[in-house]
Amino acid sequence: MTGKRKINVSIDGRNFSVVGAEDESYVRSLAYYVDQHIKSLANKNDRLDQTMAATLAALNIADELSKTNAKLKELEHKSKEPLERFGGVSKELEEAQKKVQELEKQCLEHKDEVIKTKLSMEEQYNEISELKEQLELKDLEIEDLKEQNKALQDKNFQSNMELVEVKKELNELRSYIEA
Predict the structure, then answer these.
(1) Residues 28 and 45 sit within 8 Å (Cβ to Cβ)
(2) What are the residue ranges in the chain where pLDDT is below 50?
(3) pTM for this one?
(4) Which of 22, 99, 139, 153 has the greatest number of beta carbons closer than 10 A?
(5) For residue 34, what are the contacts with CB-CB under 8 A and spacing of at least 6?
């Protein structure tokens, strides 16, 4: 007998503790599924608040469950009919199961690709943010250097003016001394 365990999951940015005997990866995949439904609805309609998005996601998932249960009941009913009359049913079922497994595998692969893409985008976003910060610092440094350059140019101009005045005074003194 498997004991109950506590599994922490995040759905729509909120943390939940789920207690049960189910496998942890199964519980996490359910949480991920619900999280994706909520985010999908929120992305499609920015007027939805968190509660409305969660409620609509629950309604959509309940609809999926209802349709899936109806489909299951239909398949159960069909499976009760004599196999002699429907010899190909078991073969079709095997093919359908293989297709479902293949599609589930593809779904997981696509989910992995999405996660990798999200991680890559986050890394790129972080890199862009760092580069923006560096650019802002360089812009501030450039402004500071411009101010220093302007101050030095003003000082140089002032020094040249003083030099002209000193030369003028020197020439006047020479003229005075020679006279």
Answers:
(1) no
(2) 1
(3) 0.43
(4) 22
(5) 11, 57, 61
Q: What percent of the chain has pLDDT over 90?
A: 78
Radius of gyration, alpha carbons of the chain? 38
Percent of the chain with pLDDT over 70: 94
Nearest partner of 31 among 12, 55, 48, judged by Cα: 12
CA 105-37-21 angle, to 5 degrees, is 65
* Token pair in block for residue 130: 């760092």
What DSSP designation does 48 have? Answer: -
What own/partner pairs with CB < 8 Å and gap ≥ 24 does 27-36 have? Answer: 32/111, 33/61, 34/61, 35/10, 35/11
Q: Under a CB-based contact definition with an 8 Å cutoff, are residues 25 and 37 in contact?
A: no
Instruction: Give yes or no for a contact between 60 and 36, defined as CB atoms under 8 angstroms apart.
Output: no
> pLDDT by residue (tens digit) across 50-90?
999 999 999 999 999 999 999 999 888 877 765 555 566 67
